[in-house]
Amino acid sequence: MLLLFGVTFISLMGCKKDEAHSASITGYYTSVTPVKGGLYNTGYFTTSGGLKATGNAEMNVNFSGTDSANCTASFTAPEGSFTMSMHCSTVNNTGHWNITSGTGRYAELRGDGPLTMLFPPNTPTGVLGIEAMTGEVWMH
Q1: 123 — alpha (psi -120 to 50), left (phi > 0) or beta?
Q2: Residues in the chain, pLDDT under 50
Q3: Which end of the chain is more exposed for a tag (fewer CB within 10 A), N or C?
Q4: What's the rounded Cα separation, in Å, for the pair 140 and 134?
Q5: Is 94 left (phi over 0), alpha (psi -120 to 50) or beta?
Q6: What's residue 63's pLDDT?
């Protein structure tokens, strides 16, 4: 009887997703190349909080009209990589991000939250743009 109850309980509960953790992900773009309909940016990234990683960053920017952009960014660290989708307002330099896929250590990583874009003179010397993302991350 106890065995039957235990199997039923486990079946109904399923697999529990790890708890979400607050995180900050910051992309520093040091190279910007115009491409048809947008920009291709390269640079580096850092993280803090519930995600610990540093490495290379690439971002494809596709402009939607005169006031918004849809971007895809890839962040590559020694342990793996993760990709996110971003939707931004070019009027107030804010937007939203979500992690859509990953490899290696980040294969099951997901997350989302708001972002802020910064441009010179509000960036360090040599940095042409910053995507400052905050929010939550978790393993799916």
Answers
A1: beta
A2: 1-16
A3: N
A4: 18
A5: beta
A6: 94
Report the phi/psi class of residue 115: left, alpha or beta, with left for phi > 0 and alpha for psi in -120 to 50: beta
3-class DSSP state for residue 70? Answer: strand
| Rounded distance between C-alpha atoms, residue 95 and residue 117, angstroms | 8
Residue 20 and residue 134 in contact, taking contact as beta carbons nearer than 8 Å: no
Q: How is residue 87 written in tokens?
A: 């939707």
Is-contact 89 96, C-beta < 8 A? no
Task: Show me where the domains of the chain are located.
Answer: 34-139
Two tokens, residue 113: 């939250």
Taking the C-alpha atoms of residue 122 and residue 61, their distance in angstroms, rounded to an integer, is 20
Contact status, residue 86 vs residue 74, Cβ threshold 8 Å:
no
- As given in the structure block, the two tokens for residue 14 are 């399923």
